[in-house]
Each structure stands twice: as C-alpha cells, then as structure tokens.
C-alpha cells in the first residue's frame, strides 16, 4: 500500500559522454609494418638507420651486461629484444623535444646523442646523472617507477604556456602503469591537453610479476580511454611500426591534439637485471615465439628482400658495433676520478649550516688520515 507523502525520485538528466570514446580506442590487433606490403613503401635510408642503431644497441646490451660481471657496473637492466622500442622512441623526436627515460632505456638515451659511457654513469654508481640533461634534452634515467611521467607532463605543459614548440616523450614499463604517478601524469596530461606522448614497453613482466597479475584491462592501451586520450597498440619488435606510430603521436601532440598513450608489445629476453634470476618465474622456452620475432632480424629480412643489405654491408654494420663496444670497454675499465667533496657540492644551492659542518668534518678526517700515512705511501 502506497504511503502518504511517499517520495518519488525524479529520473536523472539525460547523459551523454563528454568525449566520444570510439576514436580513443586502440585497434584490436597491434599495428605492424614489417612483413606486410606496407613495408615496401618505407624509406630505404630510414630502414638503414634503424638497422644500424638496432645492431649497435644489441651489442651495447651484451657489452654492458659483461661489464657487470667484471665489476665495472653495479647493475644493468638489459633491453635485449626491446631495441625497436628504444630506437623508435629516439628517432621519433625532433632535436628540440625532450625524452624522459626509465632505467632500462639506455639505448634511447644513446640514440639521442648522449655519450655511451656517460649513459652508464648512474648505473656505475658514480655521482648524479652522468650527463647534462640540457645538452641533448634527455632527462635523467629514472630508477623509481613512473616518477618521470609527471615531470614530462610538467615540462610539456610549461613549454606550451611559454609558446615553445616542444613535445615530451615519456617511456615506462608495464610495471610502471601500476604506480600512482602513472595515473596522475595521464590525468593531468589529458586535462591540460599537454604535448606529451607516453610509451609503455609491455615486456610481459614487472620483474617477476606477469601482466595478468597487474591488470584485467583488455590492453594497457585501453587505459587511455579512461583519461580521455587516444590509445595505440603497436608491435614493439617492429621498428618501422614503432617509429611510425610514435612519429604520428608526436606530430599530433605538437599540433595541439593532446597526449597519446602507446603500448608497445615486446618481450624481455634477458633477466630484469643482472641481479635477477628469471629462471625462478619463467621457463627457458617461454620466450621462443618472441625470439623468432627478433627486432634486428625483422629489419634485416626486409632490407635483404629489397636488395638493400648484402654480406659486405652487414659486416660493416657489425664491425662498427664492435668498435663501439671496444671503446666502451676500454673507457669503462678506467677508474673514474672521485672527489669526496662532491658529496656536498650539489645538495643545496646555498649550503645549510649542517652541511658545511659535515664538509668541514670530512676535510679534517681526510687531512688527519694523510698525516698518519707512512712516508712514500701513495695518497
């Protein structure tokens, strides 16, 4: 029986999405070029540049990994198998743009022009970044997960406010998408329509955690829709496809179209770092399908099919990579000059009283140790 004075709610106002989600959705299948008819239209010079950079990157990874075993590097997170993501990211940017790498993105940093030894300085355990971020517009390698993403958004937003024609490309792994900084960066970027591109290298694992333990989303690219930006899904081992998708995303951002989230599907062939035992959570055969889809081999097959790569040219490219590795080896085997006073030189613009006191104390201890050193002992 209806009660007297019963409240009958009115229906809510008609609702429509603020943004049509259809254009934001990624394709059902990862975008690819190599192995399709579209590859025949690719610029031969671009193919050669990609191939040379991929071969050098593969050799750099093996050499840096060897340096960890020799005690010359504290840690190295190899990107073997992911080289196409690294090189594609660097090649998509103009000189005036900024790259915000994660700790695994050494190849992208080098492809931007940073010295190979300086790129490894942070991973060697030396002071600070190892390179001048402003020289090549490359932010420091970020070891904390996803913290570089809000920085990229801030720089891109500030550049637009100043009228600078700059795009920021921020790289992160699939594990980084589970961090709060990822959410904050994408939300701010979409609201402000900042000229920034997010590249997620989905290599299957956040250290030992597989993707299905991190997210139930159809893909990481689908997360873009929730923030109101475009999502793209690309074959991360296809250097041409990665380059094309990222170049278009950078162009879109520069034209005022807002940010794009690109998910590159790839595979981490080696362990998370030299300190990781991938055998505890992966079977040796788990990556066989990805090894057969190797980014270097894909480009070489296309070059060979088009008559752009012969045995002599391939040998020259590999010899160039060996020269780079030998130079890296020789320079990394030199002990870096260390000054203990650097501990205090770059903490504050104006040193605090406590810092000055600590500096004076260390100077006194070093002087006292020198006085106690026997005659003729190297100082």
UniProtKB/TrEMBL annotation:
The cofactors it requires, by name, are: thiamine diphosphate
Quote the SUPFAM superfamilies the UniProt record gives.
Thiamin diphosphate-binding fold (THDP-binding)
Q: Does the keyword Chaperone apply?
A: no
GO process terms (BP): branched-chain amino acid catabolic process
Specify the Dehydrogenase E1 component domain's residue ranges: 63-326
**Database matches in InterPro entries:** Alpha-ketoacid_DH_E1_comp, DH_E1, PdhA/BkdA, THDP-binding
Could you give a GO molecular-function term held by this entry? magnesium ion binding
Supply the alphabetized keyword list.
Answer: Oxidoreductase, Pyruvate, Thiamine pyrophosphate
Q: Name one Pfam family in it.
A: E1_dh
Protein's UniProt keywords contain 4Fe-4S: no
Region Disordered, annotated ranges: 1-29
Tell me the domain of life: Bacteria
Protein name stated in the entry? Pyruvate dehydrogenase
Species this chain originates from: Streptomyces uncialis
Q: Taxonomic classification, please? A: Bacteria, Bacillati, Actinomycetota, Actinomycetes, Kitasatosporales
């Amino acid at each position: 029986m209806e009660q007297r004075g019963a409240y009958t709610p009115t229906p809510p106002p008609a609702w429509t999405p603020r943004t049509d989600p259809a254009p934001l959705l990624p394709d059902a299948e990862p975008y690819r070029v190599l192995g399709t008819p579209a590859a025949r239209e690719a610029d031969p010079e671009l193919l050669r540049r990609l191939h040379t950079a991929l071969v050098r990157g593969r050799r750099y990874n093996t050499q840096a990994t060897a340096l960890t075993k020799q005690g010359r590097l504290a840690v190295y997170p190899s990107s073997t198998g992911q080289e196409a993501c690294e090189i594609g990211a660097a090649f998509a940017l103009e000189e005036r743009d900024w790259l915000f790498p994660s700790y695994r993105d050494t190849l992208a940093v080098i492809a931007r022009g940073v010295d190979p030894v300086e790129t490894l300085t942070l991973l060697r355990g030396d002071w600070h970044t190892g390179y001048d971020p402003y020289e090549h517009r490359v932010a420091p390698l970020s070891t904390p997960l996803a913290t570089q993403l809000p920085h990229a958004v801030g720089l891109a937003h500030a550049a637009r406010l100043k009228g600078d024609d700059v795009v920021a490309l921020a790289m992160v792994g699939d594990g980084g998408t589970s961090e709060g900084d990822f959410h904050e960066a994408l939300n701010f970027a979409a609201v402000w329509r900042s000229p920034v591109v997010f590249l997620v290298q989905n290599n299957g694992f956040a250290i030992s955690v597989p993707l299905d333990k991190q997210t139930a989303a159809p893909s990481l690219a689908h997360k873009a829709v929730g923030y109101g930006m475009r999502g793209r899904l690309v074959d991360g081992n296809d250097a041409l496809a990665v380059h094309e998708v990222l170049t278009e995303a950078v162009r879109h951002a520069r034209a005022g179209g807002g940010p794009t989230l690109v998910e590159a599907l790839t595979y981490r062939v080696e362990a998370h770092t030299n300190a990781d035992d991938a055998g505890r959570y992966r079977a040796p055969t788990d990556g066989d399908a990805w090894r057969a889809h190797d980014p270097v081999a894909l480009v070489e097959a296309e070059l060979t099919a088009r008559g752009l790569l012969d045995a002599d040219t391939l040998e020259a490219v590999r010899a160039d990579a060996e020269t780079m590795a030998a130079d890296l080896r020789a320079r990394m085997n030199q002990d870096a000059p260390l000054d203990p006073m650097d501990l205090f030189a770059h903490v504050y613009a104006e040193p605090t009283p406590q810092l000055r006191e600590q500096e004076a104390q260390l100077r006194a201890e070093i002087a006292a140790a020198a006085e106690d050193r026997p005659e003729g002992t190297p100082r």
